[in-house]
Hints:
Order of helices and strands: EEEHHHHEEEHHEEEEHEHEHEHHEHEHE
Number of strands: 16
CATH topology of the largest domain: TIM Barrel
Number of domains: 2
Largest sheet: 8 strands, mixed, barrel
Mean pLDDT: 96
CATH architecture of the largest domain: Alpha-Beta Barrel
CATH class of the largest domain: Alpha Beta
Low-confidence stretches: none
CATH superfamily of the largest domain: Enolase-like C-terminal domain
Strand content: 15-25%
Shape: globular
Number of helices: 13
Strand order of the largest sheet: 5-6-7-11-12-13-14-15
Amino acid sequence: MPTIQTLKARQILDSRGTPTVEVDCLLSDGSFGRAAVPSGASTGSHEALELRDGDKKLYGGKSVLKAVANVEHILEALQGAEVADHRKIDGNMITLDGTTNKTKLGANAILGVSMAVCRARAASEKRSLWQSLADQFGVKLGKQVKLPVPMMNVMNGGKHADSGLSLQECMIVPAGFDRFSDALRAGAEIFMVLKKLLHDAGYSTAVGDEGGFAPHVKDSNEAFSFLARAIEEAGYGAHVKLGIDCAASEFYKDGIYAVDGKKLTSAALVKFYEELVSRYPIVSIEDSHSEDDWDGFVALRKAQPELQLVGDDLFVTNVSRIKTGIGKQAANAVLIKLNQIGTVSETVDAIQMTQKAGWNAVVSHRSGETEDAFIAHLAVGLQTGQIKTGSLSRTDRVCKYNELLRIEEELGARAQYVSPFES
Length: 423
């Protein structure tokens, strides 16, 4: 296998106009890979460190020039290293950093290199990135290769918009289709109908960070009422379900959850979700409770065992926290975000631990995104079966869907679309 010849980093802008890190990797055989690192707004306190400069004169303190410079230090350690074993490359960077949460070099610097090396390796192999990732991490792909079911955030609230809606994401889940492209079309058509319904009701159709509408609806019930109507009027009532990312850490304080104008205990919040599930075809609830409210997660799992219950801030793509969650049976799915942990290898470890436990892994974007479609390849290569990458507007979201369309075309008859939910 070729070796790493050069690594070059730069500061670019993400979908919010905030600086982030981009890394180029050139191998000894001339193969090239480039990767851009996303950034979250609703972040868990247990995530790896996103290193920023803190100089208020530059982008209000959010510049990433220190992380960019740290890629030079990483190059000193990795120059000449073979790319045959990606775990070894990532392990060398983790050792070089020497901290628990990558606070020395920054998870953004380390992840940029990790992703760029993966891309360069795939280029060297003259294979698609998803194929290279599957091979690198021991995923045996059969005759049929799964395309992920998209969880589309078509109505934004919480930290992703100024709509006043407590729940951060109200999602449509096109589950009952035979092809990814058909599911994507259904999502886009529902999004168009939703826009008309909101406009006709006198609501704004401006969009939030993840491309979903951000109307000032009065509560969660009204939000899901609009989604249910849009699905029906688009003609997809039997095929499309609903999902929620509550991001409950954002509306939790001193043991109380403030949602829809109510102040609820952890136990009362379980009842709140049960009422929503009884009214609407909700199949997935993410971050139902605050990131350290293990008892709340366990209580909802016991109350709603048939639902997909996803941990995001709860697990932060960290195998230690996922292991704890499996032991407690606190969920049955894990949200997977590359920049929460900071290397591709550790992200894969989180996915494979999740899958081994019989839980679902949901590969996810961040609210601050770029045109990099790495996660589309990760979802296919690791056969996760689900992806979250926003709504049906804004190129930073749609580019991931478009990449999945290309992968589906590349696979041809091998492409398989299997929903983890009943249609």
